[in-house]
Amino acid sequence: MNGTPTPILHRIGGKPERGTSGRTSPVTNPATGRVTGEVVLADATDVDQAVRAALGAFPAWRDASLSRRSQILFAFRELLSARRDEVAAILTAEHGKVLSDAAGEVARGLEVVEFACGAPHLLKGGFSESASSQVDVYSIRQPLGVVGVISPFNFPAMVPLWFVPIALAAGNTVVLKPSEKDPSAAGWLADLFAEAGLPDGVLNVVHGDKEAVDALLTHPDVQSISFVGSTPVAKYVYETGTAHGKRVQALGGAKNHMLVLPDADLDLAADAAVNAGFGSAGERCMAISALVAVEPIGDELVAKIVDRMGKLRTGDGARTDVRPDMGPLVTGAHRDRVAAFVGAGVDEGAELVVDGRGAPDDAEPGGFWLRPTLFDKVTPTMSIYTEEIFGPVLSVVRADTYDEGLALINANRYGNGTAIFTNDGGAARRFQNEVTVGMVGINVPIPVPMAYYSFGGWKSSLFGDAHAYGAEGFQFFTRGKVVTQRWLDPSHGGINLGFPQNG
Ligand code: NAD
């Protein structure tokens, strides 16, 4: 882009706000490397302004009828569905993912909106008539109040949509803090919610970095935090938020393994490895980054993967003339970090089968390029195996048995997603039972649960006990209350200081 970068402002109380911090951060188009926007970064005063707007909007929103809340969600669903290309273009321009992938991200977010439209059903309580003589007991679920949502760069629309529709449907008001690397989609979604009829102050967006996150984590009027990002930050968010009395769900990083047994359909497995390893340039928390091939299929499988990689096109995701399969990485710093891992893999003795370092021929040289990269004969002590790379780098590890492969996956500190490829139903069933990972695919490489299940990993991939969306989402964004009622009649039980019992 030529000219002045576009200012990217907070949305507080229904209005764009610059805030008072005076701090900003550049936003780049990863395919060109050029600065296209300048996002304001909130300080504690700006965050407090957003929390106060959300607090002010809470009583009326909490009291809005279930049908009014779901009608607004239905209206939002219609608007988002009709204008999905618009937000997909924003995602491509700031994140770098190709347009078709950006459209997929929006579609997965839409699923959660559709699920949240069912709030009247999902918020129903229980009722026990005559739990004791002339006593009825019933449970209700009530909103928490102001809730905070903090999202990562890799799904700038989908991750906010994992939480915001359910939080709103349950009667909460929200302060959303998106990633400062690609912040525009969040503001676009907030504007669309306003167009759908959401009252001012019910959804606020504050942009920022650690300073804004810390202000949310310690603010006394924020009741809960839903965080998605890297493991060290997720752990910090969980510890700080809970120390300040908040309910916290903090989803962290991943190192997702795909286990390929000798009886698997190797063409299917090779397709899956390429799709799940290099889609969105490997910047997915459910990307496959380690493929465990159970011998003797290693050589044949690697050959099939290499063959497919030769046909992949890397380029500017916005180009509709060539339609690349994969775009650039999100920032120059991230590209350099991933490239450094490739160098480390070579130094540590892994076999670099396909080297993706360097820009594609027809790409803008200033873009943050790194093409698909494949390592074979990776061992569990190498840094390319132990660390989350979060780029288009796939590592093949050879194992001699199913048990050896399973032990590798279970020894890993992450437990987000995993997949087994086999034609043996018994082996697949054993795997689903024995693997210590939260989301499991059987001949499915990226097993992201549908909106009516819940999303969440195990071990260092999730801090807290509530997974995202699905029924657990409604649990997280509400508190239970149980009412025991008796309507007086002429008989009176008299004084009894004993603990109440059924009778
Ligand atoms: P990140 O941890 O750097 O940032 C996430 C959020 O935290 C951003 O909003 C950022 O502004 C904020 N933040 C960054 N550093 C902080 C700090 N020191 N203190 C407080 N807040 C801070 O993550 P990212 O690079 O934006 O996203 C990629 C990571 O997210 C990967 O590790 C990926 O696996 C993970 N991720 C996980 C899931 C999941 O469902 N488990 C989904 C998507 C992404």
From TrEMBL:
Region annotated Disordered sits at 1-32
SUPFAM superfamilies to which the protein is assigned, alphabetical: ALDH-like (SSF53720)
CDD domains (alphabetical): ALDH_F6_MMSDH
A Pfam family in this protein?
Aldedh
**Single GO BP term:** thymine catabolic process
- This entry's Enzyme Commission designation comes to 1.2.1.27
Keywords from the UniProt entry = NAD, Oxidoreductase
Q: Name one GO molecular function term.
A: methylmalonate-semialdehyde dehydrogenase (acylating, NAD) activity
The residue ranges flagged as biased composition, category Polar residues, are 21-31
Indicate the enzyme's highest-level EC class.
oxidoreductase
Give every Aldehyde dehydrogenase domain span.
23-483
Q: Which residues form a coiled coil?
A: none
Q: Which Gene3D superfamilies match?
A: Aldehyde Dehydrogenase, Chain A, domain 1 (3.40.605.10), Aldehyde Dehydrogenase, Chain A, domain 2 (3.40.309.10)
The protein's name in its UniProt record: methylmalonate-semialdehyde dehydrogenase (CoA acylating)
